[in-house]
């Protein structure tokens, strides 16, 4: 992978007679990191069949697909992560960004029309960058806050997770053809992947510190990445590789991060997490994420 860099000349400090000297500002370069949602080698969209997914090669349509990222950084030629200073807007705070692939159409009823597939920010200029790292999740200090009082993009009620006093880091939902058979003989329309911290105690509403025994944050490192030509894809074919989408094995339908939920084992394996303790199996490796050509 060819190293990429943009050289920006430092602005010359304009000295005025009698004025105190000030430290020169560090020049920066803008960066835009594109993300994608794919299935069977194609873009996954609302209202478009996803093709066969999972161990049963089940046909499905998309219902929802959103996830948060934190700790976004470019990796320099020496292998050191250089944090991206995020642009603050409706999709990003200074610490976290939301990727939203659903547009409220087709099977994504109840979603939002607006989408976001890009993380934007800046890094120091004049440096050769070779890779990318980020973590799927929301920082603890921001995770356990009210969606009603938080700034965007942390103000989305659909990504709140009140029973765990936090947020869904990942919300991916699909509707398999024929529905999802439940152990009690009933059927559910959707198979859910809701990833978030679990085993949490403490009430943030009363000022208590919230502690979670299983963080369930997903660190991803891509040693060779060129933002000019590549995008980071969450590949649904890979995510559901070991899952049977037309049946549920008990508990919450699909995987809602329960440490004893049999349906979560394959999902956590594809994310690169240990289901028992919520820690990365191999830090930086998450099979569900891959590089694809930038659209």
From TrEMBL:
The keyword Signal applies. This is Metallo-mystery pair system four-Cys motif protein. InterPro entries: MbnP-like, MbnP-like_dom. Residues 28-256 form the Copper-binding protein MbnP-like domain. Pfam families: MbnP (PF20243). The keyword Transcription does not apply. It comes from the Bacteria. Keywords: Signal. Residues 1-22 form the signal peptide. NCBIfam families: MbnP_like_WxW (TIGR04052).
